[in-house]
Design brief:
Layout: E1 3-7, E2 10-12, E3 18-25, E4 33-39, E5 46-51, E6 57-59, E7 67-72, E8 77-82, E9 91-101, E10 105-110, E11 114-118
Parallel strand pairs: 2-11
Antiparallel strand pairs: 1-3, 3-8, 4-5, 4-9, 5-6, 7-8, 9-10, 9-11
């Protein structure tokens, strides 16, 4: 069975830091593009950061310079280091893994989500 399990969320003051972890099982982790998404109340889910199976990295403009995504293929884990947190970062954060198969199909998995709250 495939599982993506997030940990490391919580409550932090503005300017503080948190480190999110996502532990994957049931997939060939190294073959997957991994990403972090977030969804705040009343807003659409948005991409925060993504790290490809080949190591390419992309960040949302709103988090560039503050967040760092990394992966450990031996541990089958992906991380999101969040520094200089702002109240606007408050959201449920989701771990995502995707593997493209050919030109049409793909495998796409999501974690259960974890709350990050940055107090005013």
């Amino acid at each position: 069975q495939v599982q993506l399990v997030e940990s490391g969320g919580g409550l932090v003051q503005p300017g503080g830091s948190l480190r999110l972890s996502c532990a994957a099982s049931g997939i060939i982790f190294s073959a997957y593009d991994m990403g972090w998404y977030r969804q705040a109340p009343g807003k659409q889910r948005e991409l925060v950061a993504r790290i490809g199976s080949g190591g390419s990295i992309d960040y949302a403009d709103s988090v560039k310079g503050r967040f760092t995504i990394s992966r450990d293929n031996v541990k089958s884990a992906v991380y999101l280091q969040m520094n200089s947190l702002k109240p606007d970062d408050t959201a449920v954060y989701y771990c995502n893994g995707v593997r493209f198969r050919g030109l049409i199909s793909r495998d796409d998995y999501w974690g259960q989500g974890i709350q990050v709250t940055v107090s005013s």
